[in-house]
Amino acid sequence: MDFYAESIVLGGVYEVCSGEVRVMQSTAGLMWSNLTKAVLPTRRLVTMATMGNSQSKRPLKGVVFDMDGTLTVPCIDFRLMYRKVLGDDHPSVVNNSPVDILHEISSWSSEKQVQAYAIITEIEKDAHEKLQVMPGAKEVCTFLDSHHIPRGLITRNVKDSVDFFHSQFGLSKFSPALSREFTPCKPSPAPLLHICDIWGISPSEVMMVGDSAPDDIVCGNRAGALTCLLDEEERYHINELPEEQRPTHKIQSLLELNSVLESYNLQLVDAALPSQRQN
């Protein structure tokens, strides 16, 4: 069963475009939108140095990855994207500060949104020529596959970029692989909850891995999942982060992730295997 068919079975709001069914809002997204506040438990960071027997018996049945900056080496020129889409006078461009560009343009008129997405997509496709798999990605995939642990993907990039990634590096596909055509996107927990529904696995038994605390870690924490922050350049000071941006684990290289995964009780879930085997 492909992604769109799986989505229809689960229910939600959809759009049919040129014969393709696109998820406009998932059941998980509709449920999340009715919540006014996420109640998050106090989180203790578990680093490579502090990992021990406390995590060894906790079950882990699936792992979901971000793509850009996690599975692939960062290569998108976001500064160029901000300038072309938002303009040179926008505060984020003037102050060289981060901005959630998808959220920024969501309130624009339909015509302006179409123009903005065309620019974003062009820049993303230009980055394909420089795309490289992140060191450690193949090792992690091999490890998870050898333990029959399903692996999914959530990205704010366009679906064409996901397809390009799958075609280039000799990795079996991540399934489900949700691009920004799935709404709402990260940091909403909706895409992660959607994947958990497809797998038939509780979010508490799934780990979200990514390089963005505001997007990937918040998505995972709001869903009630385990979280692992890839922070190669030590950009994040954990004690200074808001509670919902604090990860369960923090690593500097994807090569460290296998050690994190080995600290859990990796459990096979038969229902999650067919789609993984088909890719």
Automatic annotation (TrEMBL):
Pfam family, one: Hydrolase
InterPro entries, A to Z: HAD-like_sf, HAD-SF_hydro_IA, HAD_sf
Domain of life: Eukaryota
PANTHER family the record matches: HALOACID DEHALOGENASE-LIKE HYDROLASE, SUPERFAMILY HYDROLASE, PUTATIVE (AFU_ORTHOLOGUE AFUA_4G13290)-RELATED
The name this protein goes by in its record: Haloacid dehalogenase-like hydrolase domain-containing protein
Native species: Ceratodon purpureus (Fire moss)
